[in-house]
């Protein structure tokens, strides 16, 4: 009997063992580390996927919630690969609805991206400096008012929903990029302490700042904020993924670490109520806002999806005398998706971002408060076109969540609610989470944020302004079937000047951007590459 088949079989097993060893020891790809050998099939299919889908399945622009083109742009940006496209747009311009068109200007002496997006060496990966146009908390005289160094920051995603390595990657990444991370409502963990600035979120269950009975405890909040680089406090009223709905953390998912961070007992289901107990109306909410601001010195704001407008009208009315008020408002679109929820809430509760934000902004603008409040947008705004629309409508800062997840390895498996995320991002499984290397993924998040800022600067230059916050509702049109185009101002009923900064703020941000391109100031640090 020939020994050739035996040696061939042994050789094959040896090759498989070598591939398995390589996959288990490498740290770049969580899929391969968690699923050695077979995980390579994913990348093989990905390489031939476009050809297969072109004839058999879907186009590059059909998948949801993020299309293949959108995911590919985030992946390429996070890896500092070529994120350009060739042979024209995949978008169905001829028959599509609400197609975004940004109107460039032929002549302009504004050229911010050449100085700010390339730095002294003119390299692709230099740190892009794009601060927010407004100083959060300054209009109300908060002791620790601050101007965010980045207009794009990481939105609220809790430890518990995301794994410890994922939270570490996000926090270290924002430190590299000069941005900040919102903690989400799950409390402030050691994973959040990797050098990045924080916005601490206070949810309805008051995780991290609750007493033994689950009630809000201002003393614990003050102590917590003093123990970490917390720059602002955000009171979450609701979120786009599950507006008006509480949450349930089953006992099986409550580890000793989560128990300690959230201040909840082991072995018991933990329910988050749908509404706050520390206040019951706008008046009592503003009392809590001012109490937190006074005790911590930090700017304090609210986050909410948009439904009934009565709350917003009452809030603006209460703030007109400027005696009490929120420093910022985070508007989350109903298309937000980082929280697991019943399908009816995911699909049909709360307005989409553009509709909801337009109505909230208009409420404050009519009250003369638009320049006194920093407007933060959330809900699929981590893509350049959506980001520019949001800023043209009046957003000053953008919070990105799912796009940040994609940048650190998420593949849109849509298993966030099962605890079986294959890339280790949205899971508490030690086995799955170990595949995510926080150091490498932090660099990818930083590269993604940097690339998005660079693109926003480039588009601002095309429009002829110094900063994306100076793009207004007349600079963008939504085109329908390549026949008609309607400016955002007309679509959303904006009056003249809405969506724009006031004259004083405009002069301030232009001076700020001009100052950043002076030779002595143009010394950005390189964002490390993997």
From TrEMBL:
CDD domains recorded: GltS_FMN
Domain Glutamate synthase: 149-464
Domain of life of the source: Bacteria
A GO molecular-function descriptor: glutamate synthase activity
Pfam families named among the record's database cross-references: Glu_synthase
GO BP terms, alphabetized: glutamate biosynthetic process
InterPro entries (alphabetical): Aldolase_TIM, GltB, Glu_synthdom
PANTHER family named among the record's database cross-references: ARCHAEAL-TYPE GLUTAMATE SYNTHASE [NADPH] (PTHR43819)
Family membership noted in the UniProt record: Belongs to the glutamate synthase family.
Protein known as: Glutamate synthase
Organism of derivation: Janibacter melonis
């Amino acid at each position: 009997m020939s020994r050739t088949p035996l040696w061939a079989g042994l050789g094959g097993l040896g090759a498989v063992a070598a591939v398995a060893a390589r996959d288990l020891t490498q740290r770049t790809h969580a899929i391969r580390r968690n699923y050695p050998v077979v995980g390579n099939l994913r990348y093989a299919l990905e390489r031939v996927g476009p050809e297969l889908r072109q004839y058999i399945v879907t186009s590059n622009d059909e998948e949801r919630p993020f299309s293949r083109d959108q995911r590919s742009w985030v992946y390429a940006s996070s890896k500092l690969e070529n994120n350009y496209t060739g042979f024209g747009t995949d978008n169905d311009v001829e028959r599509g609805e609400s197609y975004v068109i940004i109107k460039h200007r032929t002549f302009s002496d504004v050229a911010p991206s050449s100085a700010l997006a390339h730095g002294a060496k003119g390299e692709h990966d230099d740190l892009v400096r794009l601060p927010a146009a407004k100083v959060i908390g300054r209009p109300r005289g908060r002791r620790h008012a601050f101007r965010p160094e980045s207009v794009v920051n990481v939105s609220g995603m809790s430890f518990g929903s995301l794994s410890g390595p994922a939270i570490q990657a996000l926090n270290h990444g924002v430190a590299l990029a000069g941005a900040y991370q919102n903690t989400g409502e799950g409390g402030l963990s050691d994973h959040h302490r990797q050098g990045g600035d924080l916005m601490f979120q206070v949810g309805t269950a008051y995780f991290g700042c609750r007493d033994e009975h689950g009630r809000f405890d201002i003393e614990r909040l003050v102590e917590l904020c003093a123990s970490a680089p917390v720059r602002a406090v955000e009171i979450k009223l609701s979120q786009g993924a599950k507006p008006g709905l509480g949450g349930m953390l089953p006992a099986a998912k409550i580890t000793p670490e989560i128990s300690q961070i959230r201040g909840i007992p082991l072995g018991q289901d933990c329910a988050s109520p749908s509404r706050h107990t520390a206040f019951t109306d706008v008046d009592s909410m503003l009392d809590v806002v001012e109490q937190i601001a006074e005790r911590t010195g930090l700017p304090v704001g609210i986050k909410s999806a948009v439904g009934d407008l009565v709350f917003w009208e009452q809030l603006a009315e209460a703030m007109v005398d400027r005696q009490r008020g929120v420093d910022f408002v985070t508007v989350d679109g109903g298309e937000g998706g980082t929280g697991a929820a019943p399908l009816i809430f995911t699909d049909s509760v709360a307005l989409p971002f553009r509709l909801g934000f337009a109505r909230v902004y208009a409420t404050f603008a009519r009250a003369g408060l638009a320049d006194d409040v920093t407007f933060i947008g959330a809900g699929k705004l981590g893509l350049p076109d959506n980001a520019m629309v949001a800023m043209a409508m009046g957003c000053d800062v953008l919070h990105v969540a799912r796009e940040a997840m994609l940048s650190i390895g998420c593949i849109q498996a849509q298993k966030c609610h099962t605890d079986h995320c294959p890339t280790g991002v949205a899971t508490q499984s030690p086995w799955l989470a170990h595949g995510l290397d926080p150091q490498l993924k932090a660099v990818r998040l930083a590269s993604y944020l940097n690339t998005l800022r660079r693109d926003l600067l480039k588009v601002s230059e095309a429009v002829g302004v110094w900063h994306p916050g100076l793009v207004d509702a007349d600079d963008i049109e939504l085109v329908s079937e390549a026949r008609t185009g309607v400016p955002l101002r007309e679509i959303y009923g904006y009056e003249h000047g809405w969506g724009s900064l006031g004259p004083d703020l405009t002069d301030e941000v232009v001076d700020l951007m001009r100052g950043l391109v002076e030779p002595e100031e143009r010394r950005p640090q390189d964002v490390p590459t993997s």
